[in-house]
Predict the structure.
Amino acid sequence: MAFSDVDQFVKSSARLTEMAELKSLLCDAAEALGFNYVALVHHIHFTTPEAAARSVQVVDYPEAWHAVVAERGYFTDDPVLAACQRSAAAFLWSDLPKLLPMTARQTEILETAATCGLAEGFTVPVNVPGEFLGSCSFGLATGRNLAHQALPAAQYIGCFAFEAARRIQELKRLHDCAPRAQPVPRLTQRQFDCIVLAAQGRSDWHIGQLLGIASDTVHQHIETAKRRFGVASRTELVVRALFDSQITFGDILR
Amino acid sequence: MLHVVTGADRNHFATPLAQMHRDRKSVFIDRLGWRLPVTDGEFEIDQFDSDAAVYLLATDDQGTHTGSLRLLPTVGPHLLSEVFSDLCDAGVPRGSDIWEITRLCTAPNLADPRSTRQALLLGVVEYALLAGIRRYTCVTHVPYLNAVLAVGWNCAPLGLPREDAGVTVGAIAIDMTPETLSLVRGRTGQTASVLNWDNRRAA
C-alpha cells in the first residue's frame, strides 16, 4: 500500500459518521494491505449493555472463530490482548512467544485460531491515556503469505481507524445523550507498588518494610485504591487492576 | 504557570531551563532509552536548542520546571528537515506559518503530570494563534500516536512510518485554527489563557 492510499484512508475515515461505513472502509484497507480479516476493538469484556455501547468493536473475523471464542471464553486469556498490555509496539502473532511466557491455554488459543482460518496476524496496540486499552488486528487466512512491506502502512491504518472509531462513538453518545464514559481510575505509583506486592501475597508489614513506609500507610494506599475502583476486597482490586492493564502479570511474577 | 521563552528571554529563565535539560535527560535518555548525547553528564541538549527555539516552559509555585516543549521554525534547520526528512513523502513542509514541536516532556515524579500536560496542550494552541502558526509538524513514536490523535484536532500523516532504533517513528502535521482552541478548551474545561508572557515574573 502506497502512502497516498494511507493518506486517502485518513481523509475518508475522518468524514464518516457511521461505524458500519468505517467497517467497510477498514475491510477494504485490510485487503489492500494483503490481509483477510480485521478487528478494531477496545479490550473490555462486556458485563452490561452500557459498557458495550461505550466501546469500539468493529470485527470482521471468520464465523467459526467467533463461535469458539464465545463457547470457550477465550477473551480473558487471549495472548494477543495479553501482549498489548506488555508491548506498546505493534507485533506479529508468530512473535507472541517472544513477547510473553505463553501458557498452555494461550498456545491452544493460537492453534485453535489457525484451525478456524486465522493463521497469522499483525496487531497494533492503541493506548489513549485514561481510557481502556484498544487494538487494531489484521488477520491472515491460513495458507496466505504475509506482506512484510505493508506493515508500516498497516500501523498507520490501525491508529487512524481507531481514532475514527472513537470519534464516531463520541458522536453517537452525544446523539443519544448517553452519560459520558467514566474515566478509568488511575493508580498512583505508591498504590501500584503496594498492589503488586499485595498480589504477591505479602502482608502490610512486609510491604511496608520493602517500600520503607509504615504498614498503616500501606493499608491506607490499598484502601484508597479500593475506594477509587469501587471494590470491596484486595482480591477484587488486584483482578480489576490486572483487567485494566494498570498492573500486569509480569509485574507480579517477576 | 506556562512561560513563553524566546531566544531573547533565556537569561530570565536560566534555572528552570537548566532543570528542563536535566529532566529531558531523565525522561528521554534514562527512562525511554533514546540514544542522545549528554552534556556535562546531566543535561540533554542538542543542536536545535539554539536561539531560534521557543520553549513553552511550565513551572510550579516555586518556579521549578514541571514540563516543557520546544518549538522550532521550519524555515530553519529542525529535527524533521535534518534527521527525519525521509519520513515526509512529499518533502518537508516548511514556511513561516509552520513550526515544529519536539521534546515534549513532564518532569519525572510529578504528583499530577496530567495538569502539566493539559497546560502544555492548551499553550501550544494558544501560541499558534498568537504567533500566526497555521500548522505544527512533529516526529512521533507510533505507540504515542493515538494519544495525539485523541485530542480531536485535525492531524495528517506526512509519510509512511519506519523503524528507527527499535521503535517505529512517523511524521505528522497538526492544523491550528481558532476552532482548535475552542475544541481544546472545551475538552479541558478551560476558558482562560494559560500562557504567561511577562518575563519579569519568571523563576
In short: The interface with chain B takes residues 3-4, 6-7, 10-11, 14, 88-90, 124-129, 131, 134, 152-153, 155-156, 159-160, 162-163, 166-167, 189 of chain A (CB under 8 Å). DSSP finds 13 helices and five strands in chain A. The beta strands of chain A are 37-42, 57-60, 91-92, 118-126, 134-141.
